[in-house]
Amino acid sequence: MAYLTPVKEKEVILIAPELGRSLEERLYEVLACFRDRMGVTTFNAALFMPPIAPVEEDWRDFPTIARLVDRGNPKSKTSDIGAMELYASSVIASDPFDVARVVREAVG
Hints:
Blueprint: E1 12-16, H1 21-37, E2 43-48, E3 64-70, H2 83-87, H3 96-107
Antiparallel strand pairs: 1-3, 2-3
């Protein structure tokens, strides 16, 4: 399904009872559509599944969820986004104290 409140352009979510041949084929079809019909050249994909190791909670009915998103034009530095920002937590590569210091020096 195309996501109605996407995190980034062209987000698609696939939901299946398990990771099997059917989901693999749908993933391929969506990625081929991204590439061949929408002109997507870079993308991120994430799979959410039940835990691999035994846990106390009951995960039997938890589906396999695939999220796919267009990363944008690879030639444009302002459009790029990574999987961590999309599906987990923000990736901060700069030290906020350095940023604060430089801004403070620049603006007085």
